[in-house]
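Justification of resources, computational component.

The compute hours requested in this renewal are based largely on the per-chain cost of generating structure records like the one below. Each record pairs the submitted sequence with a full C-alpha cell output. That output is archived, and it is also reused by downstream analysis tasks.
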Amino acid sequence: MLKSTFLSLRFRLVAAASLVLLVMLWVLVANSVRLLDEALVSRENRHLAELQILHNASLAVPLVERDYVKLTRLVSQLGQQKGIRYVVLKDEAQRVVAAEGWEPVRPLPTPQDDFSQLPREAGRFDGMTVLRLGERVVGSVHFGIDTQFLREAGYQLLWQSIAIGWVAFLLTVALLSVIGYWLTRNLRALQRGVGALESGESTVRLPVGSNDEVGALTRAFNRMSQVLDERVEALKKSEARFHAIADFTYGVEAWFNPHGRLIWINRSVERVTGYTPLECLLSSNLVDMLVFDKDRKTTLEVALKALRGSTGDNFEVRMKRKDGSLVWTVINWQPINGPAGEYLGLRVSADEIQARKQAELKLLDNVVELRRAQALKEYYLTHSNEERSRLEALLNVMKIGVLFVDGNQRVVYINHACREIWGLPRDENLAGLRYSSMIDRTAPLRQDDVGYRRHLEEVQAGEEVSGAYEIALHDDRIITDISALVPGEKPGRFIGRVWIYEDVTRQKQLESQLIQLAERDPLTGLYNRRRFHEEIDRILAEASRRNSHAGLLAIDLDGFKPINDEYGHQAGDTVLIRLAEEVGATVRRNEIFFRVGGDEFAILAPDADEEEMVGLARRVGGKIADMRFVFGGREVQLTASLGIALYPTHATSSEEIIARADSAMYQAKLSGKNRWAVFGSAKLH
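The structure output for this chain reads:
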C-alpha cells in the first residue's frame, strides 16, 4: 500500500510539482537577489550620473573663474552629504584645489566607471567626474560612496526570500496533496501548453479531452492562448508601424519634454544637419548648435510659446549643418498629451526646404526684373521723349554729378558727370539698378567705404537736406555729396531722393596752397612767424594741462648781413635755404623749426628740460658753424648766437618765453657771438 502510494501519479505529481516548486522558489530567490542587486546598482548608477551632473554644474564655472573660496565651500558641502566618504577637486593641470574627507597628499584610488565594476566585498565605490565647460575639460572631481548598504540590503532580501519560499513551498505541497487527486488527467497537456507559451511559441492549442473542470481549464487555456497570440501580433504590428513612422520618416521628428529638453529624435536629423541623434541629445544648447545666429532670437521666442502648449506650423528657419553650411527648414509642432490629458511635451517636425527657397529666390529675382521692366515702361509712357531729352541735355552738360533714386531705392536717372566721377560706363543702362548695388560697385574707389556707408544710413534716416560730405578716393580725388528727398504730389509723400556729387579736388588743392602760403616761409619752406605764434600758444597750453615742460631756442645768424651786402641777395637766399635744410635735418621729429625773420630762426621743443635744450643748442650751433659757402671764389663761414628759455622755469606765457629766449640770445651775441646762453644763467657756452 505504501509502495503503491509512492508510485502513484498523484504522489509523483505532487513530488514533481514540489520539486519544481522548490527549484522555482530557489530560482525566484536567486533571481530576486540578482534583480535587487541590479536594481540597486542601476539606482546607484543613476545617482552616480546625477551626482556627476551636479558636480559639473556646480564646480565647472567657479573652477574656470578660479573662485577657490566658493570651490572649497562647495566641495565641503558635497563631502558632507549622506553616503559620501570623500570629495577631491582637481584643476585642469591635475592639481588638488579642494578636498573633503581625504588627505590631499595621499594618492587617490583608481576610479570605477559604474557600480557594476564594484567587487561584492568592497565597502566603498571610487568614482570620478570629468568637469567640462562646453567642449573644454577644466578639471575633475574624485569621490567615494559608501556601499555598505548594498550588502546589507542583499542579505536582508536573501533571508526574507528564503523564509517566504519555504512557507510557500510547504503550503503548496499540502495543497497539491489535497487536490492532486483531482488533477491527474490532461494536466500533462496543459503543462506542455504552458511550456510552449513560456518558450515563446505562437498558436498553442490543446485538445479538450473531457467536460469536467480540466476540460473547461483546457478550453480557457486555448482562449487565453488565442487572445495572447492576437495581442502579441497587434503589438508587433504597432511596433513596426512606430518604427516606420519614427525612424524611417524622411523629415526630422523630435520629442521635447515640457521643460524644452530633447528626449528623442529620429535619424533623419543626420541627413539634414550632419549631426547624429546622440550628438543632439548630448548637446547642452540645441538652439545654439543647430540654428543660424540671425534666426536664434525668433526661434527662441517661438519655442517659448510652443512649450506653453500652442500648436504651430510653417515656421521657416535656417539651420547650421555640421560642416558650417546653412539649410532652410520648415518646422511644425504640436503638444503631446497622455491618456489622462497630462502634458508630456512637444512633438516637433522639420522638413528641408532648401530647393524650394532657392526656387522662391529665383522667382523673386524674376519678379524684380519684371517690375523693373514695368517701371521703365510706365516711366517712358508717363514722360514725353521731348521733355526727357531737354532734361537729360541740361543735366549732362553740368559738371556736377546728379543721381535720382526712387522710393524703392532704385536708380531712376544718372547724368554723365556722375558716371565719370564714379567710373561707370556711359553706355550702361543703370535705370532700375538698386542704389545699394551701385554703392557696392563703387566701393573700391573710396578710402573709407565703411564710414561712407554709415553716412548714407544717417542721411536716409532723415528727411532734411544733408550737408556736404567729403569722400576721399584712392586716386587722391575728393568728392562731396549732398542729398535731398524729392517731394511727390501729395504733401508729406516723397517719390525718391536726389544725390548731388561734385569733384572738389582742385578746390581743395587751392585751399591747401593758400594754407601753405599763409603758414610757410616761401623761401625756406619752414613754418613762418604766424604759425610760430600759433604753435607756441598750443604747446604751452598743452604743457600747462599736462604739468610738463617746454623749451624755446632763439637763433640769430652772425655775419649774415655782410654776406648779403657783399655777395648779393641771391647769396643770402642760398645761405638761408641751405641752413634750413641742414639744421632741419638735425631737428628731431617732435621739435618744430621756424623762420621768424630775415636771419632769425626759432625751434620749439615740447616736453624738453634744460639739459635737452642745451643738447639741441649744441647740435644746431655746431651744424651752423660747420657749414661752408663759396661766393666769388672765396670761402665764407657762418656762425650763430643762440638763446634758451624754458617753460615754466623762465616764463609762464608765450610773450614771456619769447622775450626770455631773445634776451638770452642777445646775451650770447654781446658776449662774442658763436655761442649759446640759458636765460638767467651767467655762464656762456
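The first helix runs from residue 2 to 7. The longest strand covers residues 326-337.
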